[in-house]
Automatic annotation (TrEMBL):
One of its GO terms (molecular function) is DNA binding. InterPro entries: Cro/C1-type_HTH, Lambda_DNA-bd_dom_sf. Residues 15-70 form the HTH cro/C1-type domain. It comes from Kouleothrix aurantiaca. It comes from the Bacteria. SUPFAM superfamilies: lambda repressor-like DNA-binding domains (SSF47413). PROSITE patterns: HTH_CROC1 (PS50943). This is HTH cro/C1-type domain-containing protein.
């Protein structure tokens, strides 16, 4: 699989998971996101069509998440990204300080 195919498959899976977690049917998701044809949701979720960025934003809003979380490279990053997107500027400043002070032994190899 190419990098693009992996990204498309990951996004399709996450869109479905986010919709299900939001408790929405395909038709309800379409209404919430302002999509007139609910079959587009099915196409996004099975990866046959990639949503344009404005549509991805609408879907993320309808599902209670963010486009960044849906596009995260690693599944474990999704809740972190969503929390960062909702953080206040004070919380972000504290997070930046905490990350800067993270001991080298707790950082990923090669991240320095």
């Amino acid at each position: 699989m190419t990098a693009q195919e992996l990204l498309s498959a990951r996004l399709a899976r996450r869109l479905r998971e986010a919709r299900v977690q939001a408790g929405l049917t395909v038709r309800e998701a379409a209404v919430q996101a302002g999509i007139s044809n609910h079959t587009l949701i099915v196409k996004y979720e099975n990866g046959t069509v990639a949503p344009p960025l404005d549509r991805l934003h609408d879907l993320a809003r309808a599902y209670g998440t963010t486009p960044a979380a849906l596009l995260a490279e690693h599944d474990a990053a999704m809740p972190v990204i969503a929390a960062i997107d909702q953080a206040t500027s004070t919380q972000l400043a504290h997070l930046a300080v905490a990350l800067e002070n993270l001991p080298a032994s707790e950082q990923e190899p090669g991240s320095e």
